[in-house]
Amino acid sequence: MGSLGNYSTHNAHLISDQTIGKVITCKAAVAYGPGQPLVVEEIQVDPPQKMEVRIRILFTSICHTDLSAWQGESEAQRMYPRILGHEASGLVESVGEGVTDMEIGDHVVPIFNGECRECDYCKSEKTNLCEKFRVNPFKSTMVNDGKCRFSTKDGKPIYHFLNTSTFSEYTVLDSACVVKIDQNAPLDKMSLLSCGVSTGLGAVWNTANVQAGATLAVFGLGAVGLAVVEGARTRGALRIIGVDINVDKRIKGEAIGITDFINPKDLDKPVHEKIREMTGGGVDYSFECAGNLDVLREAFLSTHDGWGFTVILGIHPTPRLLPLHPMELFDGRRIVGSVFGDFKGKSQLPHFADQCTKGVVKLDEFITHELPFSNINEAFQLLVDGKSLRCLLHL
């Protein structure tokens, strides 16, 4: 798999000072309605304003959150036309007034959960949310002026998505949502750090702080679930049980590090009962990566009485509430949610990228397909069919 190394020798042709301060015409994949095929067409991208950055996207991939948004699962979050996408990597094309931590040509990854470093949230060690730039699926314009930086060729606005909108050759982001990484990091693989890998692995390292010898159950072996597995492997977990109704996920799971696989369809009892039998009372940690409340209950009940710890990573669009009775929390089990793996993006992601580059974390297993950007609808279908973890699109 090819990687882009030093900017000055490999990527100089991708950035030109002739575009600075001007509107750029480029290709983007635009969503015009729920479930409608994305339209790859020419759009216009405005220059960055104060504390904004315009970046040239080189690689982008598709996450289940993009899939849910494209399908319009949450009617309240529907907004069209819109440029989706939030996992990517690229180069800084230009910076707006006030941006001092990045310059033209820097290698960067966008993050949907920004970090301004100035608000009370960013200054607190208790959260990785930012008061102004935290993840917000309802937000569809820029913070500065409430307007879009994208438009159709006839001047109609195209809405933003998750602070990022990476399904475009060029995109404009608030600088709080752009992370500078080492020039020698492989940009193709670094796109995974924008969401899936950081979310799953961070949930193990940061949220749960899993220690060597622990036992885990991972419900849902998509990219986030397998990132949990990878995080558990790096921490020296003793037993990692993967749970998925897609039997094909077993092979990939075992390649990354699961020690056991359970297909709920093969059982004549609830999954949590099987896991309790296998582990002598339950696992130390469970991770719900499916976005299904029934699965969440099984994950919660699969943990050990007295100290079980469940982390919610799945996106739950349904109006149903938690399937727990408050008294069930009196048995010592705890349940928490984790956003972006509790990583503070701008502060902590560069070090994580270095760890990935040095081989502490294996990223190759997550990229199962590669396609040109023009084939983006094919890439969506691969994810719909459960055939891909991450399909890397080359722009």
TrEMBL record:
Matches recorded under CDD domains: alcohol_DH_plants (cd08301)
Keywords linked to the UniProt accession: Metal-binding, NAD, Oxidoreductase, Zinc
Gene Ontology CC annotations of this record: cytosol
Cofactor requirement: Zn(2+)
GO MF entry, a single one: zinc ion binding
SUPFAM superfamilies, alphabetized: GroES-like, NAD(P)-binding Rossmann-fold domains
Domain Alcohol dehydrogenase-like C-terminal residues, every copy: 223-347
Residue ranges annotated for the Alcohol dehydrogenase-like N-terminal domain, each copy included: 50-182
GO biological process entries: formaldehyde catabolic process
Gene3D superfamilies: Medium-chain alcohol dehydrogenases, catalytic domain, NAD(P)-binding Rossmann-like Domain
Domain of life: Eukaryota
Pfam family, one: ADH_N
PROSITE patterns given in the database record: ADH_ZINC
PANTHER family tied to this protein: ALCOHOL DEHYDROGENASE, ALCOHOL DEHYDROGENASE-LIKE 4
Assembly notes: Homodimer.
Family of this protein: Belongs to the zinc-containing alcohol dehydrogenase family. Class-III subfamily.
Protein name listed in UniProt: Alcohol dehydrogenase
Source species of the chain: Buddleja alternifolia
